[in-house]
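Project outcomes to date are best conveyed with an example. Our students and postdoctoral researchers have been running inverse folding experiments weekly, and each run begins with a structure described purely in tokens. The record below, which covers 170 residues, was selected by the lab manager from last quarter's runs and is presented without edits.
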């Protein structure tokens, strides 16, 4: 089994262990392998607004300081890069390269959790994410998703709550 596949199974196992040990009600949903938010929402049978879209960002605060941020926004919206730049008083904010995102999120793009199990990846969630009674996301796997309440997500993930979502591009 390739090393990255083993690591991603470990991320899934870590998530399930966290949920079980925290006595969180959750539901697992198996579906065809899919990482696109719109398509996986259709497979799971819920509106995109109930999905957690998770994007790893590179935030250059100054010449010497680069941070990585996991922005979590509703699935029917996009990350507002200007809002993130303002939030961190940064010179530049952009999408992380796939290798860095995978290393920090311990998951391949399309399966990134709204949780961080890496101290170098800070989580910022839009308030509309934690307000969801049912929040859906891929569970570090393309073929399995998870549903928990936004309140339980906030309690366990402890994200920084800030307005970082913008309307989807038309």
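After processing, the design step wrote out the following sequence:
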């Amino acid at each position: 089994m390739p090393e990255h596949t083993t690591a991603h199974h470990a991320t899934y196992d870590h998530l399930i262990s966290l949920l079980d040990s925290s006595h969180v009600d959750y539901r697992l949903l198996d579906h065809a392998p899919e990482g696109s938010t719109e398509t996986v929402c259709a497979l799971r049978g819920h509106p995109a607004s109930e999905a957690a879209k998770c994007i790893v960002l590179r935030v250059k605060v100054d010449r010497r300081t680069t941070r990585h941020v996991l922005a979590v926004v509703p699935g029917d919206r996009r990350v507002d890069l200007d809002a993130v730049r303002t939030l961190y008083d940064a010179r530049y904010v952009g999408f992380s390269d796939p290798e860095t995102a995978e290393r920090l999120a311990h998951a391949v793009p399309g399966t990134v959790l709204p949780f961080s199990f890496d101290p170098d990846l800070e989580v910022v969630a839009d308030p509309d994410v934690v307000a969801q009674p049912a929040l859906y996301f891929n569970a570090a796997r393309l073929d399995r998703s998870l549903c928990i309440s936004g309140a339980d997500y906030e309690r366990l993930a402890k994200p920084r709550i800030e307005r970082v979502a913008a309307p989807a591009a038309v």
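Residues 1-5 have pLDDT under 50 and may be disordered. The two ends are 41 Å apart (CA to CA). The training component of this project remains on track.
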